[in-house]
Design brief:
Blueprint lengths: L13 H52 L3 E7 L4 E7 L8 H5 L4 E2 L4 E2 H4 L4 E2 L21 E2 L4 E4 L8 E6 L5 E7 L4 E8 L4 E4 L1
Antiparallel strand pairs: 1-2, 1-7, 2-3, 2-4, 5-8, 6-8, 8-9, 9-10, 10-11
């Protein structure tokens, strides 16, 4: 006696496929929620390192070219951007001379958030000043230079000051420029210890 096997269809039914996709989306949503803060923190660290590298490049360019160069910051009320500038007449960087075209603008304006989503120049919570001065209130000016220009001299020295960055998850970073040497350092504020920690 010969038995005939019924041919079974291989593959998934539409209902099974929709269920599998639904489960995948739910699991993916949980994964994104779990890794979201890690991504925000990674972007903030990346932004601080990128800014520090940009400053070091400006310092080396000033030494190489024998003329002052640096960054000029602009606050339009909603965001802070910067542009790369260079001395055009040998007397240092001046806002009026940049506006008149004597000192050269070498790049379009750059916003940190354009390359690192959710990261911006900001002080999001009250923090102690990194240089030991009075504390900084939330919303205070995050560009602590004494002017809107951070300049590097041809000898390698720089404008002294600190640039404060904040991530979407409220982590606070500081990029510190030491005037005499032009050295750039990155710090993160440890909320538990209430202290700035070198990165």
């Amino acid at each position: 006696m010969r038995h005939r096997c019924r041919d079974t269809a291989h593959g998934w039914s539409l209902v099974e496929l929709v269920m599998a996709i639904g489960v995948s989306l739910v699991v993916g949503g949980f994964a994104l929620a779990a890794f979201g803060p890690l991504a925000a923190s990674a972007r903030a660290v990346g932004a601080a390192r990128h800014l520090a590298a940009t400053l070091q490049r400006e310092r080396l360019e000033a030494i190489r070219s024998g003329r002052a160069g640096g960054l000029r910051f602009h606050d339009d009320g909603t965001t802070i951007a910067y542009e790369r500038v260079a001395d055009g007449n040998g007397n240092g960087l001046r806002n009026a001379e940049i506006d008149d075209g004597i000192d050269v603008v070498r790049s379009p304006r750059v916003r940190v958030a354009d390359a690192f989503a959710g990261v911006r120049f900001a002080i999001v919570d009250a923090v102690p000043s990194i240089d030991g001065g009075p504390g900084l209130a939330a919303g205070a000016d995050p560009i602590r230079l004494g002017s809107s220009i951070l300049a590097f001299a041809s000898a390698g020295s720089a404008t002294s000051g600190t640039l404060y960055l904040a991530s979407a998850d409220r982590r606070q970073f500081a990029v510190r420029i030491l005037g005499a040497t032009g050295r750039v350092r990155i710090f993160e504020f440890d909320r538990t210890a209430r202290a700035w920690v070198a990165r």
